[in-house]
Structure formats: structure tokens, C-alpha cells
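Risk register update: the risk that structure generation would not scale has been downgraded. Supporting records follow, first protein first.
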Amino acid sequence: MSTRTLARIALGTVAVALGLAPVAVPTAANAGQVGVTIAITGAGRVEVVEGSIEDGGALACDRTTNLDHRVTLSCGRIRNEELFEAWVWLRPSFFGVPEGWEFVEWQGCDQTRANNNGTRDCAVHSAITGSVEKFPTAVFRDVQLPTISGISATQVVNEQGRFRFAWSAGGAVRSQCKLDSGGWETCTSPRTLTLPEGSHSFALRSEDASGNLSHSWSTQVHSVDTAFTATPPRLTNSRNANFAFASVGGNAFDCTLDGYQFTCDSGAGFFSDLADGEHTLTVAARNGAWVDPVPVRWDWRVDATAPETTLTGGPAEGSATTDPTAAFTLDAPGAVDFSCTIDGALTPCARGVVRLDGLAPGLHVFTAAGRDDAGNSDPTPATRTWTVTARDTTVPDTTAPDTTLTAGPADGSIVTSPDASFEVGTTEAGAAPTCTLDGADLPCAGGPVSLVALTPGTHVLTATSTDAAGNTDTTAATRTWTVPAPASALKGRKGWKLKPATGTYAGAALTARRKGAVATYAITDARRLALVVSRGKALGKVKVYVGKRLLRTVSLKGGAATRQLVAVSTFDAGFTGTVRIVAASGRTVRIEGIAAPTR
């Protein structure tokens, strides 16, 4: 019961004792009642410090778990009923309130007073009689800002333009990031970004449950990339090499030539007196502590040594003969073509047998010089000098017939059939042809030669002929072509299925629908590589590798479904190793065969 209520009861008693007019004491029907619904903004606690609470109502309202000072939560209604006025006094309490919170103010009070915990109490009351409802609110505020600490910015190893940002946020429910002039967005630690070449600013701040923001922090990183702007040829006969390179994000360079490291901040490199063989230059730009994680690389081969040309067979040096023809065997290791002269005039020639016909009586000089693929020509051509003397016109026939091969697969072609038909011909009637297939004797006569069920691989058909006088064509007609291996020849078919299909090469195709499916095929001394594929509107792509080197990405997407032969690569020299065919997407891909010509 409040002090005021007790005073009113005492006054009534005195009035009766003095014989004054009787004072009526209020009954329950006209008592004062105050209903109180306490609300708390933020994390706080309110306790009832005066006033009797009816019905076993709670003496405290606890909302210390509400960490957002923008949110107001209420507790259950309590009430105090008294004769005359009903009063309830409320006090802010810091019991269980998180560190960094403070009491700000009361709202909806009838009266406030100072207390000994540095805040103010709030009172609400009823009239002398009657019932009222009161809704006092205690306002608490989070005054401790969240923090950002332990911040780091590092480059991701071996990934171009990738950076990793890490940090710790204290007292925060979320972190916010901003890149360059962009807007703030929610992020988590660590955050990895791929940034274009150049300088970039990365900013951080944190936010607590009440929306308080920490002080922001920022750092600058440099995304660095390197590019060649001038390089030597991949194959060169010069022992000197000039390079130029540049970087948008870098301002200095580190170079490595054949394993030797040095700085090359001028953006250029000149190298001289290079030895024959393979060379590699890598260049990485940098900007302070930031470097190009994937240096640019250039591989090239120096070949400054000319081939040595040899002549065998034919007339001996300084000899004399009545034969108006001469046949020499020409060779030069490493040469790709030759330059020949007879008596100072250029004459066609190639590695192997070179035949000269119709030589007039007199002195003759034949020269031959090989040239390699780097452009080096033999500076000391092979030379043969001899004399042709006149002979009796009754000399018997010494001219060999010329043999021809027509029809059939084109020379050097890849055909999707195990069968082939040719026509063998000769320039002299009655000359007897002889043939070989892949080095083995093959019966033939003038006219058609049919080959069936040839095995996959490169095949060589030769034809020569001998006339009635015994003269044999020394320059056999030759035709080389390649039959692809069928899809069933591919091994290690992880993720592939071999499916018979009408109209496919060899009656089956390898099909894959999973990205990363791998099939392999071993090749020996291959000069080229090609695939027999199916094309279609919904087909995907395959990647073709030898070792770790990507030769080509082949798209199988096309119009109407078709079978096509797709050239993949050529090799400077015969290549031996394993080819990997990898499905490059989740779309269906089909492989019908593979060809690896050895010539």
C-alpha cells in the first residue's frame, strides 16, 4: 500500500474520532488500479522497486538478449490495486546487460526520480478511484562500436589477378566490403577476388546488431600482368634474340633466361652468342611487393649450323663416260630441301635419287646444297665433275620407263575407308610393273590395283617398271595415305561409352556426356594428328592434349548431324607419346576415330 493511501486512511480515522462528518473508506468496488505493460528498447532490464504486484505478476522485465537498440520489446502486463491511488515505481537495472550498453531515458512515465545507480526511476499510477493502463518504455542504447582487426591482403599463388583478403570483426554481426569506387556490400572473411590489371583499393568495415558501424579500413593492391611486345621467331638461325615486354600494373621486371635470373627493368632484352638448341625466357612484372603470379614465357630454338650435303653414286669425280645420263643419291641430315645446279643452271632435286638425262658430250659439273628448316644453307655444296664422250649411235636402249600411279587416295591424305583402288601405268608398252605395299611385295600388273581391309595406320604403295631392254625405273611412283584407327582403339575410356551406330566410321562411336571424361591413344613417330568426329547442333567440345600440352580445342557443334575429319596438329619431327581426348563441357561429344600419319 502506498504512503498516500495510508495517509488518506489515517485522516479518515481522525475525522471520526473528532466527531466530524464520517469519511467513507473506499471498498474494492471503487479502489484505484494501474495496469502496467513495460517495454524495453535494446538490451536492458527493468525491476519493480515499489508497489505491490497482484496475481503473482513478474517483478522484473528482462530483455537483455535484444542486441538491437532499434527494436523495442514488451513484457507481460502486471497490475497494482490499492484503496485510493495505485502506484508502481520502476528502476533500470544493468544486471545481465551486455558490456557497452547504457541507459538513455524513460518514456511514458507519470513521474521520475533520481536513484543511486546513476539512472532515474519511473513511476506510473492510477487516479484515487478507477483503473488505468500505463505503457512506460525504458530506452537502452549500444554505445560500443564494433571493430575490424587482423587484416591481411595476399596474392593467390599461380593464379592471375587473384587476391585473398582476411580479417577479424569484433562485436559485429556482419562485415561490409567495398572495391574501388563501388558500393558497400556484405562479405565474409576470407574473400577472394579476381581483379583486372592495375591498382585497386579494398575497404572494410563491420556492423553490429544495432546498426553501429566500425571505423573503415582500406588497403591498396596491384594486379600485375606481363606481355611480350616483341619476340624472336620460334625457330631461328640467328644466335641473337631481341625481346620487348610491357605491363599495365607493373613498373619493374624480373627475367629468367634458361634458368639464369636477373632484373630487366628496361622492358627489353637483347641476347647474343646463343648456343644451338632450345631456349626459354620468362618475364614477371612487379609493383613493389605485388608480382605477376603467372610470368609470360617464350620458348624458341636456335639452329645456326648448316647441314652437310653428300653425293653418292653417279660418275666418279674426274671420270669420263659415254653415258648421257647420271643418277646421284642426295642426302644432308637435317635438311628440308635442296638447291642443285647442272653446269651452272638450276635443276630440280630432292633427298634421294637425282637423275640427269640427255647430257651433251663435254665437261659437266653437278652441285647440291641442303637447307634446313631454320634457313641455314650448306656454304660448301657437294660437287661432282665428269666428262661425257660421244658414243656410237648404235648403242642399245638405256632409257628406263616412267611408272605412274593414278586414282586412289591423294598423297598424304587421311581417308575414312579401309579400302583403296589405284591405277598402275607405264610410259613404255610392254614394261612389266612391280609393286610394294608398306615395304612388302604386292602382286600387280598394268591397270587396277585394289586394296581391301587395310589396317589403321599410314600406308605406302610404290610402283616401278622394267622395260624389255632391262632398264628399270629408279624413281618409283609412290602414294602415301593414312587409315584412321576406329573409336574402339582408344584406351582408358574413363567417362566414355562405346556405342555401335549406323553410319559412323567403323560402325561405332565413343560418346561422353560428363565434363572431364578422358580417352587415350598411343602414337609413334607421328607427323600429324586428326580426329574423325560427329557434329551436331547440341554437341559440345573436346580438348586434345599430348602430355600436358593442349594441342587444340575442337568444337563439335554444327548444323545437321555429319561426320567430319578435323585436323588437330602437326609435329616438327616424329612424335611418340600418348594423346588424351578430354570432354570440355557437359554437352554430349562423339569421337569416331583418330589418325596419326607417320609421313
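Supporting record for the second protein:
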Amino acid sequence: MEKRFGVKDFLLFAVLLMVLISVWLMMFQVDRQWEFISKVEKQIEEQSKDLAELRRQIRVGGTLDNSAQSVDSGTDASWQGFSRLAEVRERKDYARGDWIVEAFSVASPTMTPYIAGDAYAATIQQLVLDTLATRDPETLEWLPLVASEWTASEDGLNYVFKIREGVRFADGRSLTAKDVEFTFRFFMDSKIAAPRVRAYFNRVDSVQARGNQVTFEMKEPYFESFEIVAQMPILAEHFYGKYLESVEQAEVYNTSTNLLFGSGPYRLDNVEDWVPGQTLELVANERYWGAFPGTFSKLIFQTITTDTARLTEFKNGDLDIYGARPLEYRDLLEDKSIVERTHNFEYFNPRGGYSYIAWNQLKDGKPTAFANPKVRQAMTYLTDRQRIIDEIYLGYAVAANGPFNPLGSQMNKSLPTRDYNLQKAKQLLKESGFIDRDGDGVIESEGGQPFSFELTYPSGSDDYKRMMLLLKDSYVRAGILMEPTPTQWPMMIEALDKKNFDAISLAWTAGFEVDVYQMLHSSQTEPGGDNFMNYKNADLDQAIELARGELDEEKRMVHWQQAHEIIWEDQPYTYLTWRKSLAFVDGRFENVRTVRSGLNRGGLWRMPIEWYVTQGQQRYSN
């Protein structure tokens, strides 16, 4: 007998489907309710912390008011760090809210303070962790931040900072002078894997908190003493203190990726579960103590490791800030739709830094070919920087002749830039024992070993890839075989730490005056130090030490210029280029402009963000 799907069957099926849909809706509603309950519980927990902090302040006789709520930041000198932002907030169209969305080109391996060593992590930490002082982005004048005032001895050996009342961490706990003292004790502890930081603070003798003041005593004069102590990111002892209790706890800290907590205007939203490569979300710190809360509700940092993908996201309007490569910049300026919806800028950023190739002189305990300064000089003569500038950077760069900013006074301008010179390079290589011994076109050492090496560089960059091909062609003309080796960022960091590379191409950030101790002093060849190419020169060490200890600027520049002459002769790096910054910013942002320190986007030196979006132009929900 044939079975048919009748009306009764249809009705039963419809009822069953409705039941299933109802069950699914109930489950969805329960999930939403559970999410709502979780948020409410978190808010209650945070409010309880605030009440507990208020009770604690009452017990110790503290003030209940946040100082920031009653201060006139335009007239009170202790709040001058917020004066530029105060002027912006007085505009009639100023509004809080909206997000800034941008992308990092690499996945930073960690955001943990004093462990992270890359510029991307520094960008995040500048928005989460506070310091004692900030700077005016135009005049570069030092201005109060966590410290309301300070004094400095004439000999540069003593600095006393007064901690302002009302500064709180993101959980509501007060920031005190004790936290500043703890921070120094924390990263100077050998259990914490922070040798780079300890190198910068090696001239600080002691840090002591007394009441609401903290005193830094220096072992000897140092020209950057004030900047180092004033810009020390402050850690909360109640949050980080447990990691000094044992070697095991310290190792937890050293291997962490997300232990980022502070008193700044923003906090890491997914601090408990963020892992490298994931999108970073900074949300406004609702307990921020400063004169004004953060303008933007969220700051989003995506990890997009390829140039093409970042460009596509920007063109689609999904990125608000885009640092363009020269070829892209030229093409985008011809795109009417892009120009109409963005601001564009081209400028030499004093902190933008320089690119370089570092020649490793000691690998696996044995000297390499690059241990010979004549070989390093030859490699510089073989590096056609003008061709790199013309063909890859389209003229938006200048050749670097050392680590010192051409805009500053450290640079020894009497030193000529080594231009491409194949014959000079071949002569230096011959004097170093490298000649073609078997007629195959490749030069060999006196022991018969072909001159070949790997040049490690960051993967995902089309500009780097093109530059590597250009360099390979230049080197092979001298009989040198170079194999370009693109490498992911975490592996780059590992290679630097272990010093297990032949040569590596990267970039250093800079400033108007920079201290090259960390990357070029012989003492910094220790594990974790930034002299990762094992370069040692006693004369350079002495010049660096004399410069660091000289407080008189005119005399200090003499020592820096002597150091530059030694670096120029030795070529521990082949210094490549100082590049222009080529940036696009979404047009809905107001008050975007260049200043002496770059763009006035905030973050740098803990400067407040001066941008905003008018109410009618805001794109994202708060």
C-alpha cells in the first residue's frame, strides 16, 4: 500500500518544527541572560572594590574625591600634561565615543611589561601603563603626570617626585610611591627576564618611597637619567608582587603573554585570555584618574601580517589608520575616493628610526666571516642604498650613515656616506683572504669555504622581499651567495636572543638624541642583550660611557661624534635608510595633525590622544 505525506503528517511536522525553534530560542535567551548576569556580577564586583577602596581611604584619612574631577587643568601647573586635550575638549563639536581601528604587521609574542621588547607591544603599554611625567608633543617640555611635581639636584644624582593624590589603578586601588619603588625592585630582580631594561637602569643606585614622595639616587651622572626614571612604566605591587615570591612564580611571569594591568586611560579588555595573534581590544578605563577620561570607547589593534591584506582592509574602510608603503602611497593619492575620505601625511618622524643589516660576528662559539671589519666594510660598499631608495622607497627615504638622527646634533657630519662601490668591496674582500679559488664565480676563504650566508628578515613585507632580491643581486656580483630567509616575528625574536643567525635586517626606533649603549656596548652581548651580533670594541665602549656621563650637551656631542667615527669605521651594522612616514587617517577624525614628535595621536611619552570624532560622524557603537 503506497504511503503518502498527508495533511496530518504536515501538521505534526510543523508542530515539531515549532517546538524545536522554541527550544532553540529559549536556549539563546538563556545564553543572553547568562551573559547579562555575568556582566552585572562583574559590575557589582568592581563596585565592591571601589567601596572597599573608599573605606580604606577613610580609615587612613585619605580624600574621597578624585582630584581630576575638581581641577582646572588650564591653570593648575600640575595638570599641564592635559592642557592640550583641555583645549580640544572646549570645541563645540567635541564628543566622546567611537573606536580607532588599526593593524599591526606582526604578532607580538607578549604584552607583559618589561618582558615585551618590540615597538608594537610598546604602543599598547603606553596606553595602559602610566609614568611619572609626560611630554608636550610640540615643545618636548616635560610635564607632570602621575607625579604632580619634582626636583632634581644640580649634579644629576638625585630626583625626587611627589605622587599626586587620587591616582588609581584600573581596579580602583590607589597608586602610591610604594608602587614606584616596587616597580624598580621588580625588574631589577634577576628572576625577571628583563636584561634589556636592567641595562637602561644600571646607573640607578636606589629608589626609595617616603610618604607620597619617591626618590631616585643615581650612581653617577647620566644625560638621560631624568627621562629614564620619569618614563618608567609603573606597576601595581598588589597585582605583580606575587611574581617575585619564588623562581616558579617568576617563570610564570617570564613566559606569560597577557599580564598587562595599569592605571592608564585604557585597559586590555581580554586580558585573561588574549594570546599572540589575536585582536587586541583596549577599552576606556572607567576608573581613570586623569583630568579627562579617554575620548574613544575602544582602540582595536588587529594582527594582519601581509601588506596586501592590510591594504585591502584599509581600502574597504575597515582600518582607520594606515601606514602606506611608498608605491601604495603614490597609487592611493591618485584614488579620488581614498583622498576624499582620508587625511594623508608624509613627514620624517624623529622617532621613526632607521633600518639596518646586522652582521653576526660569533655564531655557535666560532668567529664568522663578519668578525673582520674589512668584510663588514665591503658588505656596506656592496649595499646599493641609493638604488633601494629610488626603486623601493620611490625617494621617500634618505641613506643612513650611522645610528644618529640627521635632525639632531649627535651625527658626525664630516663622515662620508659609503656609496655602492663594487671594486672597492672586492679589494677589501681580497685583503681579507676571500678570492675565487676554483673559478666557479664564488669567492672562498683561505680554508676553501665558499662565502655564503643567510639574511634573515621579517616575512609578510613586500618591500623587504624586493630589497632582499636587490641585495642578493648586488652581493653575487662580488662572488657572495646570500640566501634571503623570511621569518615570522616570534622566530625573529628567538633568533636574536639565541644569536643563531648569519645576518639579520630590522629597524631601530630613534629620537633627537639616542643612547646606543644597549645595542653596541660590549657588555650587552650577554643573553637577552640587544648587542645580538656579538660586536665588541673597547674604544667605542669608552666613547659611549663618556657621552652617557656628560651632562653638558656641547661636551657630550663631542663624545657622540667620536663614537660615530668608530662605528663608521667598524660597520657593525650596514645602516640602510631613514624613511619618511606615509600615513592615511580616516577623515572622520578631527584635530589630526603633525607635531614635532610625529602625529599628535597620543601614546608616545604617555601623551593623551588629541583626536576625536563629532557625534554625527561616529561609526561604532559605544
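The CA atoms of residues 459 and 487 lie 5 Å apart. On this basis the risk owner (M.S.) recommends closing the item.
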